[in-house]
Amino acid sequence: MVNSGFLMALRFLFVVCVVALSCSAEARKLEALVEEEPLVLTYHNGPLLSSAPIDVHVVWYGKFTAVQRSIVADYLQSLGAHLHGKAKMPSVNSWWKTTEKYQIAASNHAAVSIARLGKQKIDETYSLGKSLKRSDLAFLVQSSVKSGALPLPEKNNAVYLVLTAEDVLVEGFCMNSCGYHANVLPSSTDGQKLLSYAWVGNSVTQCPGQCAWPFHQPLYGPQSPPLIAPNGDVGIDGMIINIATVLAGAVTNPFNTGYFQGDAAAPLEAVSACPGIYGKGAYPGYAGELLVDGTTGASYNAHGLNGRQFLLPAMWDPATKSCKTLI
User: Fold this and answer.
1) Are 196 and 183 in contact (CB under 8 A)?
2) How is residue 82 annotated by DSSP?
3) Are 228 and 299 in contact (CB under 8 A)?
4) Average pLDDT for consecutive 10-residue bins of the chain (327 residues)?
5) What distances in angstroms separate CA 277 from CA 15, 117, 178, 282, one per listed residue?
6) Which residues contact 310 (CB under 8 A, 6 or more apart)?
7) How many helices (DSSP H) and strands (DSSP E) are in the chain?
């Protein structure tokens, strides 16, 4: 889940104290707060989403422009870009292939992890209003499947992604989450297999400093200038980062019995275990060394389909037991 903002805030504050050399006692207290055990995501012997291809079905809740929807769609299609020919490197697909290592480590045999854009449902009428509880997000998935707007998976190979527009308030949004993944039964009365679903909100008008960094100045810590968003939309480019985070978590820890560290109710997962890291040399307040588009000045680290560029977070690599960046 994308619940690392509080931890990042503590890290930022600790670094500031150390640099200032004027609050050593507080620094020691904060150091104790953020001191972590070695970063190792343990496999808890549960199922992963491993039946390829993994379909990502999308519920668009609220008003998104056609351009905004195309940016997200191009990102999701780019996860399996090798199906469409070779993509420029580093690519979105090469980032996603790290999830194969989780499957290999869990099963001890070769695996292929392919994700792709599935079916889409557009709800521009705000059918449940503009203030949603988490249970409403689960209901959106259930009702979309029940109505036939989105299909039931034939195997354990689908994630239902609910995306909420910038004017939609969601329980816990900004306060402790930029997005999360969970699971739900197809309906409240049947006993079919659980569906894996995820949610990400557009934070551009609510909390860009928490959920759209580094394309907006951070709420806490060093106030370095924000980076230019690769697709020209701070909210959507911030959503891409959080979509990447929750999808990686949904695949490698779909039912809270996969790969994670810590409490199963608030786990550190494939990407959330590596907060704020996008390129080599990253540290609190600095995203790391990135590629820069010569025309727009935008920062990115991954190429996608249709000439798209994206900024993707580091993912913990089971082979090296470290946070892996594309560049």
Assistant:
1) yes
2) G
3) yes
4) 42 33 39 61 94 93 98 96 68 95 88 90 98 98 96 90 98 96 81 88 97 94 92 98 98 96 95 97 95 98 96 97 96
5) 16, 26, 16, 6
6) 75, 78, 92, 230, 231, 237, 240, 300, 301, 302, 303, 304
7) 8, 15
